[in-house]
Amino acid sequence: MSPRAVPATRDRLRIAIQKSGRLAEPARALLAACGLSWRESRDKLFCYGESLPIDLLLVRDDDIPGLIADGVCDFGVVGRNELDEQAGERARAGLAPAYQALRPLGFGQCRLMLAVPDHWEWQGAGQLQGLRIATSYPAILSNWLERQGVEAGVVELSGSVEIAPRLGTADLICDLVSSGATLAANQLKPVETLLDSEAVLAGPVREFDDERAGLASMLLRRVDGVLKLKDSKLLMFRANRDTVAELSRLLPDAEPLVQLPGSGEGPLSLQTMCHGAITWQRLEELERAGAQGLMVLSVERSLA
Ligand code: PRP
Ligand code: ZN
Question: Which pLDDT does position 1 carry in this prediction?
Fold first, then answer.
């Protein structure tokens, strides 16, 4: 990783995503929903953007922050855990920030946690004094230990962290937990959360001064559009004027009701964009409150 971070002038954007692993598929799905398409290459490392001048680089998640820092890629879809760890390492080495999290993406949720052998009785951070903790996240862990005022040994491992206590190379671990299955299989239990993580769209700290500026703002706007619509549905129904207040109250996660023209006498025709899940139960509740002819429509795209 070089400390330069001076992106060379380019007229195409490059986005790094995980080649395989938990974030790979959702990252591709997000970019496809943003209107990007690619020609899959034979080496499957570089995918040339076809619909837009935006190319993909398929890499290990650990490499993504460095690729952005070095200006090799402009954006990346990466876990906040990886981004924070490498930002922490840079800060500890006295380097300036070279990337930032631009948008949380709502997938890849996991937590960076301390986990101890099952039979331990956990009494808090003070218990860690003088112990050895195995982790792939030494910067986040060291910063946390400093904040707790505890001195413990940090044993850096690049993988298979969860077997360290059994091998005797560490007393406990600090690792990512998603379902908890890995910990359970290794007779470990989670006791402290150091970081709540999810996938983020990461980008450079500086603005582009070439063709990429326009492409980057278009990409961000589309990402926002896709994220906003994730659980959104268009809800249409008819209702008498005297029930509208109660129906609005039942839709706290929806935009203000819009009255459609027409109807004249009789019930109003109404619609709204609802940003929370619309279950059968909610529809039945709306019906009991006076909504008639309820319809839930999927929303494909929006620039609102
Ligand atoms: C993480 C972590 C654990 C596992 C936990 O690795 O290091 O091994 O996931 O998940 P679980 O709680 O659902 O069992 P990951 O698969 O993300 O790979 P990486 O650390 O190599 O990026
Ligand atoms: Zn990894």
Answer: 45
Nearest-atom index, ligand 1, CA of 182: 14
**CATH T-level topology, domain 110-197:** D-Maltodextrin-Binding Protein; domain 2 (3.40.190)
Q: Is the CB of 177 under 6 A from ligand 1?
A: yes
Per residue in 96-146, pLDDT (tens digit) is: 999 999 999 999 999 999 999 999 999 999 999 999 999 999 999 999 999
Q: 137 CB contacts (<8 Å, ≥6 apart)?
A: 81, 85, 112, 174, 175, 194
CATH topology of domain 233-298: Alpha-Beta Plaits (3.30.70)
Q: Whose CA is nearest to atom 2 of ligand 1?
A: 176
Question: Does 63 sit in the ligand 1 pocket, CB within 6 Å?
Answer: no
Mark the ranges of the chain whose per-residue pLDDT is less than 50.
1-3, 5
Q: Quick one: 13-108+199-229 is in which CATH superfamily?
A: Periplasmic binding protein-like II (3.40.190.10)
- 178 C-beta closer than 6 A to ligand 1: yes
Q: State the pTM of this model.
A: 0.84
